[in-house]
Amino acid sequence: MAHAATHDHHDDHHGAPKNFFVRWCMSTNHKDIGTLYLVFSLLMFFIGGSFAMVIRAELFKPGLQLVQPYFFNEMTTMHALVMIFGAVMPAFVGLGNWMIPLMIGAPDMALPRMNNLSFWILPFAFAMLLSTLFMPGGGPAGGWTMYPPLSLQGDSVANLVFAVHLMGISSIMGAINIIATILNMRAPGMDLLKMPVFVWSWLITAFLLIAVMPVLAGAVTMLLTDKYFGTSFFNAAGGGDPVLFQHIFWFFGHPEVYIMILPAFGLVSEIIPAFSRKPIFGYKAMVFAIASIAFLSFIVWAHHMFAVGLPLGGEIFFMYATMLIAVPTGVKVFNWVSTMWGGSMTFETPMLFAVAFVILFTIGGFSGLMLALAPADFQYHDSYFVVAHFHYVLVTGAVFAIIAGAYYWLPKWTGNMYSEFWGKMHFWNSVIWVNVLFFPQHFLGLAGMPRRIPDYNVAFANFNMISSIGGFLFGASQLIFVGVIIHAVWFSKKKATDRVWEGAKGLEWTVPSPAPYHTFEVPPVIHDDELAHGHVDD
Amino acid sequence: MTSGGIRIKAWVAMACALFCGAAWANPEPGQLNMTRGVTEWSSEPYFLNNVALGVCVVIGVLVFGAMFVAMFRFRKSRGAVAEKWSHNTMLEVVWTTIPVIILIVLAYLATGGLKTFADTTGSQMTVKVTGYQWKWRYDYVDYQGKAVEKVGFMSKLDRESDETRQLKSGMDPYAVKVDGYNTYLLNVDEPLVVPTDTKIRFVITAGDVIHSWWVPALGWKMDAIPGIVNAAWTNIKEPGVYRGQCAELCGQDHGFMPIVVKAVPKAEFEQWLAAKEQAAKQPAAPAAPAAASTAAAPATAQVAPATAPQG
């Protein structure tokens, strides 16, 4: 620390480097790297979204009109991989990079050079992944779950595996950085139980990442050796077991879905108190709920495999464990509602997205509870009901929370207020069309439409058409978001104050807007009433 | 294909789905809920689905209701002043305990269903199902304790659907019909014929990649995995033709791998099986006519029968 401070002394007075390449490609500044992550994730959101548009266009009516079935499978696979590893996870890392040092009073991330590397791996990983679409054998088409033996039939196994390895390395480095920052760089007086819930949620998420990304790396490496080196981990003819892959994959994959939602819980737990002008209800319960959800996420992986032929005892164990998750999740939802109760609420765009998150994520949680019931899952499994479920938790959950966070901190990042009118336009269009898009998919699944099919019986036609219309309009609505951001960064005339929102508490609101290139070079003095949860008693 | 007609039918079906809870065999336009199914066990997932949905709706109404009340009552624009409290132990204990009790009830209901499904003993018939890219193979193993001689066949997407589904075929999916029921992508060249009122054990496996055998009217799906033999059972109570599809991504023609189960009364099934066994003994003779003669019989079936199971 002391060494770094003296070494960088020259920069401290001069702010950001003027040279574009030096500033954006060689950056070790948490704010610039956060921005890079966020811009990258927005780009990936649109690339992944364009794949979704291909899917919804093909499913607009019965019969194949646009693409061959194999290409359709490439689109479903790539849509998922890009959205999960390219859009949602980097967006959270970007928000974490930007905000965690500001929220705990640290001058930067603990490992700034590694921070640069963990970002710059990503463009290469996705270039490798996306380039497979232009190769003779085509891109991966075996689903994002990569179940063998199907995934081994493709020609892009090596590219897929190496791209996943790179994403995993990036995620692990990002997670190590976040843990090191949170545990070592908090300003004096910033006790663990005074940290904002967002910081808590990222700390727990980072441990999940470190625990499970190596598991994924192992699973895909076994795929690689099965494909090219004649091993038989998953090949029944050689003594292997295709179900083994599913166990390993979901031991990664289930915590992964919580990696994509826990930081969202943290974001919403910042935003709702700010616009309710009331501290979060049950701060400790919120932290404890996140930790219990993270723990439970490790022991429920086989609920993705109820139809795989598990023994009765296994089905019962995984069903009960999965149902248990409803308890801490319920606590979180009740706490958000209680935070609003008795508050003094205003509904700026971040709050609108946060409130929509609570309602729509809860709907996704309800279908999750239904899916947990193994006998009913024998019907739901691999149907559109599942598609509806995980899009409710990932789009109206994770993505809505990210958008809420972006609006919440955009004035802090840019120094300018975004256009509230266009923010609200973005919100109402998003919230209406996302429901038109995903709600009918529950009905499709219940009626018996399997997922990942490019064409369907005419009985499924009407809801698919409604869903596609919702999809196109939801996709188009996101262009408003880009407009709002461009306007706020370069064209907005309205300057943001330091404490942008009346009810916002926390250290990030004590620094100027835009946040200077270097902040907290001298650790801040913590006043409990300045913190979101500083006055937690008992 | 008048859209008005379709819309009316959809509304009727929707009303039916909401209010009569009718047992359907096959997907209907506008269908909103799961099928009750037609087997001894299939009401389990249907019942659980409805109970869980009911629980979710009640909790949803309470939670979202409280939220909306809060959003209208505690607005700054209405002069609301934020209160200071930020926890309430009593409330927190209550809203942790009540969900636990609800979950225990749901878990109890679900466990019973799981146990009955896992019990494949006492079956009167065994059918081996093998998934291939992209067709199903059915082998009749035994019936009423007696081994079945060489009865087995491949079952793949019917020709009409297959031609219609080609990219830019210009053919109308709405025109693919069997007995007035649209069977686009839900019909096969040769269905699995099984007897009603018989506990049938399915042993399910695959020859290449993982598939999943799913007929919603039977109430379950089961993965077909190479190197592994899974077991499941069914006991169909109503004669009819029940349609489903492969439910696990299995390659480019995953969407074109339907399953058709034709349940017929025992006597009729025995005739069909005997004819099949007979045909297997004389490989030169064409098998189709014998099978076709029995196909017209189930006129009383509630669901219109599919095309005759011709080879």
Automatic annotation (TrEMBL), chain A:
Matching InterPro entries: Cyt_c_oxase-like_su1_dom (IPR023616), Cyt_c_oxase-like_su1_sf (IPR036927), Cyt_C_Oxase_1 (IPR000883), Cyt_c_Oxase_su1_BS (IPR023615), Cyt_c_oxase_su1_dom (IPR033944), Cyt_c_oxidase_su1_bac (IPR014241)
MF terms (GO), sorted A to Z: cytochrome-c oxidase activity; heme binding; metal ion binding; oxidoreductase activity
Subcellular location field: Cell membrane; Membrane
Enzyme class: translocase
Catalytic activity field: 4 Fe(II)-[cytochrome c] + O2 + 8 H(+)(in) = 4 Fe(III)-[cytochrome c] + 2 H2O + 4 H(+)(out)
Domain Cytochrome oxidase subunit I profile: 24-527
Pfam family, one: COX1
TM helices/strands, residue ranges: 36-57, 77-96, 117-137, 157-185, 197-224, 244-268, 280-304, 316-337, 349-374, 386-410, 431-449, 469-491
EC nos: 7.1.1.9
Superkingdom of origin organism: Bacteria
Keyword Lipoprotein: no
Keyword terms, alphabetized: Cell membrane, Copper, Electron transport, Heme, Iron, Membrane, Metal-binding, Oxidoreductase, Respiratory chain, Translocase, Transmembrane, Transmembrane helix, Transport
The protein's annotated pathway: Energy metabolism; oxidative phosphorylation
Single Gene Ontology BP annotation: oxidative phosphorylation
SUPFAM superfamilies: Cytochrome c oxidase subunit I-like
One GO cellular component, as annotated: respiratory chain complex IV
Topological type in the membrane: Multi-pass membrane protein
PANTHER family hit by this protein: CYTOCHROME C OXIDASE SUBUNIT 1 (PTHR10422:SF18)
Family assignment from sequence similarity: Belongs to the heme-copper respiratory oxidase family.
Biological function: Cytochrome c oxidase is the component of the respiratory chain that catalyzes the reduction of oxygen to water. Subunits 1-3 form the functional core of the enzyme complex. CO I is the catalytic subunit of the enzyme. Electrons originating in cytochrome c are transferred via the copper A center of subunit 2 and heme A of subunit 1 to the bimetallic center formed by heme A3 and copper B.
Protein name: Cytochrome c oxidase subunit 1
TrEMBL record, chain B:
Annotated ranges, domain Cytochrome oxidase subunit II transmembrane region profile: 26-121
Superkingdom, taxonomy of origin: Bacteria
Keyword Iron-sulfur in record: no
UniProt cofactor(s): Cu cation
Transmembrane segments: 49-72, 93-114
Signal sequence residues: 1-25
Catalytic activity: 4 Fe(II)-[cytochrome c] + O2 + 8 H(+)(in) = 4 Fe(III)-[cytochrome c] + 2 H2O + 4 H(+)(out)
This protein's name: Cytochrome c oxidase subunit 2
